Amino acid sequence: MISINTGQYRWHEFPDLSALQEAALGAILDSAALAIQERGRFNLVLAGGETPRGVYNRLKSVPTDWSAWHIYFGDERCMPPTEFEWNFRMAGEAWLDHVAIPPNQIYAIPGGIRADKAADVYAQTLRGVGMFDLTLLGIGEDGHTASLFPGNDWGIAPDSPDTLAVFNSPKRPPQRVSLSAARLNRSRQIIFLVAGASKHKAVAKWRAGENIPARAIMCETGVDVLTESALLLPKHSE
Ligand SMILES: O=C1O[C@H](COP(=O)(O)O)[C@@H](O)[C@H](O)[C@H]1O
User: Fold this and answer.
1) Domains and their CATH numbers in the chain
2) What share of the chain is helix, strand, coil (3-state, %, to 5)?
3) Ligand 1 lined by 51 (C-beta under 6 Å)
4) Ligand 1 within 6 A of 54 CB?
């Protein structure tokens, strides 16, 4: 049986994408400063897709100790690394290629091989990695988060594998790798970045408590959802 968390969501509204991205930047830097001060390293999981691009762009020019940052990915699209939808490529172009994070502390999910093989490789990468300090996530039009799609196994059970291979993604490309909900939830802090009119229906379902993949995500400290104000208003047609 799939049991969905009942933990706390904190919804934060912003007038536009730029304000949302600025707030996300502040939250990431606060989280990094705390983690580095307390544990000497910052384990950050990145969201893919388009919404976080502006946040990553802003991270290019902040003062921080990049040598303490360790970058993981919440999901990847199995396609050649040259494809522009590759999450690793987007994060690289927007941010990672421009800062001094040691390359061996950027843990990409292999993108150009079969999803099951890539999932196995990344499960090895995650072996021995403890709690993530901060996990960034987005949400798709259908309520998917990372590459956990409606109708698929989201890996909610505590003994779920850390990584899941996806062969039937309704969004291009069909093959993907996702961290399981159980692994994503082993985070000290989780922040969703939600923007764009196409997300309106998914947000409404989420807030109404419907069983969409985003609801499989929760950690002990609760979940912060940064969203454009417009997405919280009822649509005229509803
Ligand atoms: O397929 C994916 O979609 C979600 C949302 O992407 P966005 O472009 O609407 O921001 C994303 O969070 C996930 O990482 C990605 O691979």
Assistant:
1) 9-232 (3.40.50.1360)
2) 35, 20, 45
3) yes
4) no
Ligand 1 pocket, 143 CB below 6 A? Answer: no
36 in helix, strand or coil?
Answer: helix
Residue 92 CA to ligand 1 center (angstroms) comes to 16
> What are the angstrom distances between the C-alpha of 31 and each of 4, 157, 182, 211?
26, 27, 21, 29
Let me know the angle formed at the C-alpha of 19 by 14 and 24, rounded to the nearest 5 degrees.
95
What's the confidence (pLDDT) of residue 4? 43
Per-residue tokens: 132: 């993530």
User: Structure pTM?
Assistant: 0.95
Q: Measure the CA–CA gap between 179 and 170, rounded to whole angstroms.
A: 18
For residue 171 and ligand 1, the question of a CB distance below 6 A is answered with yes
For 10, the enclosing helix (H) or strand (E) is strand 9-14
**CB of 138 sitting under 6 A from ligand 1:** yes
What's the whole-number mean pLDDT along residues 147-167? 97
6-23 burial, b for 16+ CB within 10 Å, e for fewer? eeebebbebeeeeebbeb
- pLDDT of 217 > 80? The answer is yes
Q: Which of 171, 192, 198, 226 to mutate to test the pocket of ligand 1 (most atoms within 8 A of CB)?
A: 171
